[in-house]
Amino acid sequence: MIAFLIVGGIGAALLLLSMLLGPVFDFLDVLDGALSGTAVGSGLTIFGASGALVLSNDGPVWLAYAVAAVLFAAAVGVVSRMTSKLQKASVQVPHEVIGLTGVSITRITGALGEVQLNHPREINKRLAFCDGVIGSGVSIVVTELHGSRVKVAPAPAAA
Predict the structure, then answer these.
(1) Which residue in 4, 44, 92, 98 is deepest, having the highest Cβ count within 10 Å?
(2) Residue range 129-146, pLDDT digits in tens
(3) Is 95 contained in some domain?
(4) Which of 16, 81, 84, 85 has its CA nearest to residue 44?
(5) Mean of all residue pLDDT scores within the chain
(6) Alpha helical stretches, state H, the chain
(7) Which pairing describes strands 101-104 and 114-117: parallel, antiparallel, or unpaired?
(8) What b/e string do you get for 93-122 counting C-beta neighbours within 10 Å, with b at 16 or more?
(9) How far is CA 31 from the centre of its chain?
(10) Residues 140/145/146/150 CA torsion (nearest 10 deg)
């Protein structure tokens, strides 16, 4: 029983550390996340807990190891699938904003301003700046991207 408790404790510690200090445990990400620190920590915790439960209910040792091994594999599989799906869902493909047109919401100077761009992914206003001064309600075009801020210029007049 002591062996199951030790393995479960190590698994819980690995799980906690991998969740708190994820980038430190990136070296464990093997086979597309199947052997990540979170997945292995979860599996070891389940292994220790299930083995200890079988032995505490007077089950034979071979049954404790069999149940623990099956649940370990299931836990690693489930957690690795969940983490890979979460990672894929959180990855956002950036779209090109340079060249987009829009309208200035506020007065735009070299330091600050706000614009609304004409694009389906641009549902929020963006902070903007420009070389000169652009008044509110003026058509603009994005010329540069600086982090989340955009550098804009007045849009050329339509002919």
Answers:
(1) 44
(2) 898 888 888 899 988 887
(3) no
(4) 16
(5) 82
(6) 2-20, 37-56, 61-90
(7) antiparallel
(8) eeeebeebebebebebeeeebebbbeeeeb
(9) 18
(10) 20
Q: What is the CA radius of gyration of the chain?
A: 27
The confidence score (pLDDT) of residue 49 equals 92
106 & 131 share domain: yes
pTM for this predicted structure: 0.53
- Kindly tell me if the per-residue pLDDT of 147 is higher than 80: no
User: Based on the structure, what is the number of domains in the chain?
Assistant: 2
What's the CATH number where 131 sits? Answer: 2.40.50.140
**19/79 same-domain check:** yes
Domain membership of residue 106 as a residue range: 101-154
C-alpha distance from residue 77 to each of 32, 40, 43, 71, 146 (Å):
12, 10, 9, 10, 41
